[in-house]
């Protein structure tokens, strides 16, 4: 389910100061932490709106397997999201995996059993999938070169350099490259994360936290995940959130 409304969570400590009238006691409120969420998406709405479809070509689905972005948006889900097959993206390949698509973790893992797709334990219900390995199982399925982007996110209330991108990720590569970029107010996109065989060959199930370095005065932000490569292997994501919590350590 997508949310792009500002949500503020306040943690309050109640301290009893002593006995008051009757059985009542006076209490003082001390606010000691505050967090704001600017955007979240877990893709789970796709299970019912419009509902997942049977695989058109993969043999191992259960009938509620996958959906592509145009079909999802025709069913009034994922408004404002974009998925771009870049110029070099293969013109054939397996239709279910042509660009970023959406599937249940079980259906995605069943497409090619015994290749560790089932190790994405953090992904639930519906996940976003960029699987160049499966895309390449039919002629014309190489290279894979596609980008998934959020709708514009309102960050007008954010303090400069305060925002963090948090999401669950499953990654496996041989010669693939995955990047995350962010664009503020329509300006040129800035790379904030890069994955490749040199810095991370595999991470089957992890929560990633990336500092977004939002500039002062920025009003809107768009985040993009891009995967480029031929054949082996994949990038899957779920449970996306933009907030102003500063973790003890970032993933980059």
Please, could you describe this protein's structure?
Helices cover 7% and strands 42% of the residues. With 252 residues, it is mainly beta. It has a single domain (41-243), classed as Jelly Rolls (Sandwich), CATH 2.60.120.260. A hairpin with a 5-residue loop joins strand 1 (7-19) and strand 2. The longest helix has 7 residues, at 105-111.
In short:
Helix content is 7%, strand content 42%. It is mainly beta. 37% of the residues are buried.
List the helices and strands and how they pair.
Blueprint: E1 7-19, E2 25-41, E3 66-67, H1 69-74, E4 82-85, E5 101-103, H2 105-111, E6 127-131, H3 132-135, E7 144-149, E8 153-154, E9 164-173, E10 177-184, E11 190-195, E12 202-211, E13 220-229, E14 233-243
Antiparallel strand pairs: 1-2, 2-14, 3-5, 4-7, 5-6, 6-14, 7-13, 8-13, 9-12, 9-14, 10-11, 10-13
| CATH homology superfamily name | Galactose-binding domain-like
Unreliable stretches (pLDDT < 50, length at least 5) are 9-33
Strand-residue fraction? Answer: 35-45%
Secondary-structure element order, as H and E? EEEHEEHEHEEEEEEEE
Structural descriptors:
252 residues; mainly beta; Jelly Rolls; eight-stranded antiparallel beta sheet; 3 helices; 7% helix
């Amino acid at each position: 389910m997508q949310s792009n409304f500002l949500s503020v969570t306040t943690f309050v400590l109640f301290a009893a100061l002593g006995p008051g009238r009757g059985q009542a006691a006076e209490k003082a409120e001390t606010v000691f932490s505050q967090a704001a969420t600017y955007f979240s998406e877990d893709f789970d709405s796709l299970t019912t709106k419009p509902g997942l479809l049977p695989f058109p070509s993969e043999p191992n689905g259960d009938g509620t397997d996958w959906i592509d972005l145009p079909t999802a948006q025709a069913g009034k889900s994922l408004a404002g999201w974009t998925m771009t097959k870049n110029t070099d993206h293969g013109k054939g390949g397996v239709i279910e995996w042509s660009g970023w698509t959406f599937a249940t973790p079980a259906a995605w893992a069943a497409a090619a059993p015994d290749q560790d797709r089932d190790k994405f334990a953090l992904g639930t219900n519906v996940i976003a999938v960029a699987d160049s390995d499966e895309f390449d199982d039919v002629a014309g399925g190489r290279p894979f070169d596609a980008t998934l982007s959020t709708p514009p996110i309102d960050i007008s209330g954010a303090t400069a350099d305060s925002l963090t991108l948090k999401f669950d990720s499953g990654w496996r590569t041989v010669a693939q490259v995955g990047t995350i970029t962010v664009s503020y107010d329509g300006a040129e996109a800035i790379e904030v994360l890069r994955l490749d065989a040199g810095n991370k060959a595999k991470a089957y199930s992890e929560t990633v936290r990336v500092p977004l370095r939002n500039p002062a005065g920025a009003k809107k932000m768009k985040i993009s995940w891009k995967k480029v490569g031929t054949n082996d292997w994949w990038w899957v994501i779920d449970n996306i959130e933009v907030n102003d919590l500063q973790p003890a350590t970032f993933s980059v």
